[in-house]
Fold each of these.
Amino acid sequence: MNTLGDEEVARLDAWWRANNYLTIGQIYLKDNPLLRRPLTPEDIKPRLLGHWGTSPGLSFIYAHVSRLIGRTGQQAIYLAGPGHGGPALVAAGYLEGTYSEIYPKVSLDEAGMLRLFRQFSSPGGIPSHVSVTTPGSIHEGGELGYVLVHAFGAVMDNPDLLAVAVVGDGEAETGPLEGSWKGISFLNPARDGAVLPILHLNGAKIAGPTVLGRKDPAEVRSLLEGHGYEVLEVSGSDVPGMHHRFAATLEEAHGKIRAIKEAGWTGARPRWPLIVLRTPKGWTGPEQVDGIQVTGTWRSHQVPLAGVKENPEHLALLEQWLRSYRPEELFDDSGTPVELVRSLAPAGELRMSANPHANGGLLTRDLVLPDFRKYAIDVPAPATERAESTRRLGEMLRDVYRDNPDSFRLFCPDETNSNRLGAVFDVSDRAFAERVTDADVSISHDGRVMEVLSEHNCHGWLEGYNLTGRHGMFATYEAFAMVSASQTVQHGKWLQEGDRLPWRAKVPSFNILLTSTAWRNDHNGFSHQGPGLIQVVLTQRGDIARVYLPPDANCLLSVADHCLRSRSYINCIVIDKQPQLQYLDMDAAAEHCARGAGIWSWAGTDDGSTDPDVVLACAGDVVTMETVAAAQILRERLPKFRVRVVNVVDLMTLPRRKDHPHGMSETMFTELFTDTVDVVFAFHGYPGAIHQLVHGRPDADRFRVRGFIEEGTTTTPFDMTVRNRVSRYHLVMDAINNAKRLPPGATELKEWCERKLAEHAEYVVEHLEDMPDVRDWSL
Amino acid sequence: MNTLGDEEVARLDAWWRANNYLTIGQIYLKDNPLLRRPLTPEDIKPRLLGHWGTSPGLSFIYAHVSRLIGRTGQQAIYLAGPGHGGPALVAAGYLEGTYSEIYPKVSLDEAGMLRLFRQFSSPGGIPSHVSVTTPGSIHEGGELGYVLVHAFGAVMDNPDLLAVAVVGDGEAETGPLEGSWKGISFLNPARDGAVLPILHLNGAKIAGPTVLGRKDPAEVRSLLEGHGYEVLEVSGSDVPGMHHRFAATLEEAHGKIRAIKEAGWTGARPRWPLIVLRTPKGWTGPEQVDGIQVTGTWRSHQVPLAGVKENPEHLALLEQWLRSYRPEELFDDSGTPVELVRSLAPAGELRMSANPHANGGLLTRDLVLPDFRKYAIDVPAPATERAESTRRLGEMLRDVYRDNPDSFRLFCPDETNSNRLGAVFDVSDRAFAERVTDADVSISHDGRVMEVLSEHNCHGWLEGYNLTGRHGMFATYEAFAMVSASQTVQHGKWLQEGDRLPWRAKVPSFNILLTSTAWRNDHNGFSHQGPGLIQVVLTQRGDIARVYLPPDANCLLSVADHCLRSRSYINCIVIDKQPQLQYLDMDAAAEHCARGAGIWSWAGTDDGSTDPDVVLACAGDVVTMETVAAAQILRERLPKFRVRVVNVVDLMTLPRRKDHPHGMSETMFTELFTDTVDVVFAFHGYPGAIHQLVHGRPDADRFRVRGFIEEGTTTTPFDMTVRNRVSRYHLVMDAINNAKRLPPGATELKEWCERKLAEHAEYVVEHLEDMPDVRDWSL
């Protein structure tokens, strides 16, 4: 069955051959790019890097999607799951002209081609994988498993967009990828765009066969149908037969997608199409090398001919391989791709390498944000009222949802209500395309609040949503943010690199809300207690990493407003959801957050006229309460003892400015912490974080940090602070032990604290006998 | 169809009712455990914690598996994926008598029952989830998604073991769980035991419906059949009908498993059975509360009657609910379970709560280890030879495999060869139960090397293997260890807690080999460059966390030997796989590793008679090479400058002993680092790690740390060190800048270094033009 006319086949095949030629050139050649003379060892790069095996499949698909776009005008972006096939995607952008538009030195002629080859995987050049530098990409080809989450995030609220997502059979083995097929269970055909997954089974990964590559095709089909897809299959390596069959299948899939979208929501989740494409790994490459089969096996994964520089036979094979694409038909005398090749590309921004959805900063509009002050909690006096701080944030997010009906979403693993953000359900349901019953609450195909019990999906969807220019927040239990920590790392790397590319417009920041924190997972126990993500964010570069620990609701509102306005950061906001003391009225909160840290003179006994006896510093809600309580004990029981209380909201004010742009000035640091007085620092996270942040500050050794030291279980909130030695009594004793000048009564006060802690220990032991109300842990 | 006799139904149902009664008692009661008098508000706990929704399903399954064990003598362990149903598993151990054997105060009478109730989710008591304290468990019920990986790891090389793994429909949404169904593709029916997954669909999670719970059952079946299972289904809530149907289905599944195992390997992956069990969430609980449906909905997830202490109607409902189980039939006058209930339990160690496989330390035998010295590299002089260090480790692991044919496995995401550990294939193939072709190499159903492109599977399988008493190693690209970082955290928590329970015998350590490190992923680029896992391990308690950075092959062998002998630690070993300089002969290496850190006098110019001018310290292979090179430059060009080189292998020697048991003594610290001389520390990982570790050591401010500062791309190895400012030239300049006493020529040397770096920068810029051999980066 011939779907295509001869000219179409010729065009597709020419483009594909040109792409393969350029791919191999990038891996091997540092000279003689057009093979105007026989290949010599001197033409070969000193170090052969890159991944051939997946590349011809990636470019084959790319060519056909380009043809489809040309015929239909479909808005489409291309996500290469096996992004180690970087050279194929770079070559695609080059053949479409986009590459030269962005990087003029890589021109569409012989000199440019030589530069294209030399820059690949070279110092001063470009990375070997699909990366931030690759036009048309929103998906880094390094860590595998996230191609579908990025694709689904990209099409949410993008009704006209098609995300073609190639899934490699290696990455199909990863947990995150297997967990991401279910994206269609959350997609609304009327409001969202479409993802077309193409499962590209070439049968092998780095060193052996793959599970899906070796399963009975009927099992693979059953699996994907079970996920809810209509499975279309194309297999083979014959050309032009494969062109005809794949073109027909792609048109069929696109037709089904159009029909689904035209039908809109029909009351049941559509069966979206999915293509399984089976081609040999390293397709069109050298069949055998040194008598051993290479094509179709794991041996073609990277550089199939490794010895070309030393081995004349290998060199000859390489030349034969390169010439098999007939470069003389594909590039003219000046090295420019001929019209037959160039004419496959769609026009302008329809080229997948130039689609603005893949440079989402171009499409980013500021959020319509309400005045955060209107959600303020009235705080007539510090530390007197209790409130659930995140509930106020929920009210603010409700209005953000309302006012940005197609450019803001909240992503949360089944915990929106639990995290007290449920006000958003006043204006939007949870998204769900599976069956809904009358008994269900706030859930429908129309919903735009994203809840799935998968941090990987939530994180990845928001990344895709951000990178296509829309805003959002990922709210999760603090401990379980570690589930997707690697995604935080990799997305951070993307933002860091994007920041250095002038043509990449800044995208909305990735906002993480860590709630249900270690200190208040007293009811869930040790597995739920872990402030590890802060440590992870601290490893990222200062140009993108931000950590905020608002102590109360008004500070949270101010911080959230700031984060939702920012671009291209990783913003990590940490605050618990339980009722907690409120300290600052809105004016004070806004000022405090703008400074990032400040003295709370109302909490201490330091009149500011001279250095205090000790500084009690704190960052994080629960430890701030303990610090304020400790200061109160000291104020009442040692009134002559001069205690200064410093609260830190923006953790990145602590390092020196040369280490982080938020770092406070030396003057301000001295104003807060003095240069010599000991600082007892109660920190929400692991104590080491503060030690590393204050390194290089005047006499950093004087900072004694208390924090989470991996002591936890199901217990009471106060017991959590005792177990981790950051309770008010510990802080009082620390203050006394570290002060240089002690007033009378200090020794007695220490003894009093020790008694209090002994009473608590007895209470815990006896608790099983008398069970008093363990909720009582006020000041 | 009645599978069961009346007496069997009575026994099963009595046990199940008793379990449900005890579950609710744990959640609610602090007194009146046997309801000898009407319930009063004073009988109710002050704080209601726990998860009811999943519990009746968990205990229903447990009862039936117990019956099966009783009939067949099957060795079985039970893994509760939805382990937030902790009270059901605690009640099971209690009814089986195991609980009282381990915790005598929780006796099998009224006093013990009261203690059982009071201790649950209470300070000084036990956690609310299935946890380390729960006898019979190797699976913590906190972070969801790992039940199948643990189950598969447990049955590897355990041919007689059946792991019954209950998968909740919430956790079935997670990526790690979805990626773990494929465990059967790696299982050998002749050599391994069996996993029986029971997908328990009760339709809801915390706040809404689940994807699998709402899909057409035909789709769910298709999905699971696609994974390769034979799907058996049981649905309903009718009793005793459900007893009959589930018993029949469980027997059918067990029969199929026995048939598969008796057949052994038949040339194709068996279709292992799997049960889909559909019951209402909160089954047997209050149907409605305040006129709103609770049973069968997310509202029954935690505490379905929240107002019992204040609301008399709720209190009455609770009493009615408790009495619906007819406790007077289940417990005798003294509160002891009656014979009908107790008789369901299998005998002795066949009780799932007492099975030694679930307390794997009891079964742990020391590995038969070869003398690690015999794999030594000959090092006639330091820093003259290059070798791939991990290749020697591979040879050692080959012999460990050979000598421990059923108690050691290597787990690695498709990178065993890439990581130079391929010698293991001399004695074992990769495990694979899918189709194998003639062209495949080192892969078969008989293989025991575990390769799957999923860090989650590798990590989880090894956890399950370890916790059932066997040894192993997880080898992975350093950057991608972050994919499973949360598993490292959670397994660490398990080991930390287990260490405090005398009845839990110590299990083999979890050994992580981080190779293909940041510094030598110059060929793969930024996504592959990230030493983040060290930061994660540093957050764990000193009683279990260990980080080793052997600088060369002989040190690696010594460290590996030590780790393979150790118990109940997380051992993180970091070393690259590329050819690298070798420093120490085997005697010196063994001594160096035993001390954990030491002065390399051959590298420096410090004669030891007095304090040096500067200390150059290092930890990690590449940075050690740069440090040695820097010292050589200083030795040659500033011979009067006294430089001391200190190498650290065991990172945990740096903190004070009070912070970590490996912390070196104050005397040794001063001997190595002096008390006052500045230390330029070149570290493999993020610099902040060293700052946090040396906190509290004499004048910690004098430590200037260079390390990985998130600068990377595809480039040369040397350029990686330049980008991160840890190159030999940077270290020389740092040494000069920080030394207190400078000999003549120091300024000139700094200028020379700056010239060298400028030349390098030019080289990178010009590289695309001339492309010299970038592999040249010797000393």
Amino acid sequence: MSANLQLDSQGRLVHLLTTEGLPRSLILHILDTAAQFVSVNEREVKKVPLLRGKSIFNVFFENSTRTRTTFEIAAKRLSADVINLNIGSSSTAKGETLLDTVWNLQAMDADMFVVRHAEAGAPHLIARHVKPGVHVVNAGDGRHAHPTQGLLDMYTIRHYKQDFSRLVVAIVGDVLHSRVARSQIHALTTLGVPEVRVVGPKTLLPKDVERLGVRVFHDVAAGLRDCDVVITLRLQNERMSGPLLPSAGEFNKTYGLTPEKLALAKPDAIVMHPGPINRGVEIDSGVADGTHSVIMPQVTFGIAVRMAVMAILAGNDR
Amino acid sequence: MSANLQLDSQGRLVHLLTTEGLPRSLILHILDTAAQFVSVNEREVKKVPLLRGKSIFNVFFENSTRTRTTFEIAAKRLSADVINLNIGSSSTAKGETLLDTVWNLQAMDADMFVVRHAEAGAPHLIARHVKPGVHVVNAGDGRHAHPTQGLLDMYTIRHYKQDFSRLVVAIVGDVLHSRVARSQIHALTTLGVPEVRVVGPKTLLPKDVERLGVRVFHDVAAGLRDCDVVITLRLQNERMSGPLLPSAGEFNKTYGLTPEKLALAKPDAIVMHPGPINRGVEIDSGVADGTHSVIMPQVTFGIAVRMAVMAILAGNDR
Amino acid sequence: MSANLQLDSQGRLVHLLTTEGLPRSLILHILDTAAQFVSVNEREVKKVPLLRGKSIFNVFFENSTRTRTTFEIAAKRLSADVINLNIGSSSTAKGETLLDTVWNLQAMDADMFVVRHAEAGAPHLIARHVKPGVHVVNAGDGRHAHPTQGLLDMYTIRHYKQDFSRLVVAIVGDVLHSRVARSQIHALTTLGVPEVRVVGPKTLLPKDVERLGVRVFHDVAAGLRDCDVVITLRLQNERMSGPLLPSAGEFNKTYGLTPEKLALAKPDAIVMHPGPINRGVEIDSGVADGTHSVIMPQVTFGIAVRMAVMAILAGNDR
């Protein structure tokens, strides 16, 4: 259903809601387009006129300065007009429904909505109700999906490892609460990564996670052994509750990525993290700032991937 | 006085503070100019260079993401540089007076202030103290006026009904607390609408409202009968207090616009609302989303009207 | 150390962190460049393409709408893309460190950071850790420095008095808590002002302030006598505490600048204030709005000085 919603009858991308069901060719098209924008961002004048005269609304029902900033800078480098809306403090407080808010903005001749929402499925709901020619980009919905993060991670892996077809990728930590992990897993399996592992305590892995096509490891040493890519996840303290969950200190001891644990992976392994990192919790500073870390390049590629997604969506109007 | 303040000695618009006393020819000039911007907003590149290099400050002493957004997008489509200031959390908290704040911004070579303030008259006060060539647009002051809303409503009525001279227009609900209603009434009577009605309980109508040239109805059936235009007003829960006022539920029962009540109006009547709507309070979803509703076109025309006002003001410098 | 950090090996400005140690020739170069931007800001189209395609991040760890606005408008008039970040409410709340925040933004291909922080030295820390080609502008750090304010004050003094070499300048009030005063003193002494005075009660002057090359006056009449320039400082109520400090009322009586006290200065003395003013505390309205006051021109020149600093920094990449 999601897949159908984000593609038109000719299979072109009209919304980006999830990496689940996104065709391999489309993912690769996004990555190839992003490669061009990486070079734009290295220029002295980091600006192309592709979205000139377009109105892009960053509609954040859940606050995230960091993610909002990445979309804002991406849109501005495409020459779009960008409007930021923190809706938490706005009309919804006046009793306006989600769809009324969106319909109002759409009536202002919006071209694109970048939506973050605490409820899973909110961007899909919006996508089902906007007019043709208006595009929705999911910037994170509940525990469900964060597709631009998933895609920038694919860009990063391809940049360093070239070929997906022989990789072992381990995703370590709080998979249960992570929309990022879901978006990564769908993209990795679609791109043909033969072994995707999730590594963590039972209490932080979703039940039946194997159904997504991953191998489950509770033992971190086994999970990291001979990996090409180690993805650490943010320990979402603010989303965690309940007596069965480990404390930050306990988590670090067992699953936090230290240089010692990383030594179990392949010598040329790369270490990724969606940020912001909790130093000394899910990742030690020695790893985060070390030679295996590609956390900062992830951020750089993230701008280019978001530019690519927006440019492709806008281009598919014509 | 207000009329003089907003016109220069040649009768040209230099501030937009209220629709009261605004000459008919000027209102029509704004509507005609807005028509051109409606077509700009339907283009692929929704942008004209009219205000390039101008600095427009959205100075909101009362928070309103929604209204601020309409002015921001309008100004950006005119290619202006826009600065948003939520002053509630800023210098006034440091003890700076209203005029000191404005003088400071003026000294930054501001060209235009879009002002919202909880106190009636604040935009007038500012207009009286800015330099020649600096323009003030009232984006809502207390219960007093919201002229761009009034003007976009006139645009909408003209779009659907062409001729003002044979219309019956009913404004239903909380007229007492509504700056929108005041701005509508002044514009409607200036444009020659022969019958403007206000419909609501005594406790929600201003005393002596007849002096504005309207007919008063407490009976909703009589008030709606044979109307061409039904304007519902937001029930401003946040501004209401006191034991004489109806609850939202009571209000809905008596004055809320349902399909049944709407059937009393003319078969081709249009339904308007300044937004955001309270579904099930002043308007039922069956009406808000029904075929008579022009609430979304109001929003679309609102951007064009705000572009027109800003373009006319800036053009009157030369 | 600071001086070395803000200059490259060829003595060109790469960061602006403090006026302390800034060479006289560089200060004059900034003032001369600003003069050109003053005329840009008087044009109908207040815009030059110097920073087109550059990404400037206003990173405010301490809220200041006013100062942020001056940098935002300056950057927009240079055609830069500007991103505003109020970090207080963002990632630092999620446990991200200052440097992680900056490194993340840097990875988005930032060109310049404008930084305000409650801790003295934060902009220096950032400047030490950014990549070559990324520039840091201190927009106020703790009680330490506010160099663009200091420089715009120098611009203002030069505008009205032309020659620094024969001036008597008095800085009156809460020097202890004032980063502005520190930045002024360093700039004034570097520019060769023969007599810089600080005037205030012992409790509001730093110990050993004479070491900065100033004369200390506790008696306001003696301090103001025959001055060419009187700089009043904001009484930073929010930073003051302790039983030894005067109340606002007591302060006004003794040190508040009244027309009577100002009469002790030279007949053509100018009165300055960094804003926002506390009317009736450190300055009376009769002085603030009087013929000696150049407080509004300070604001106007401030935009031009900030444009000059940004343009010089960006130009020094090439």
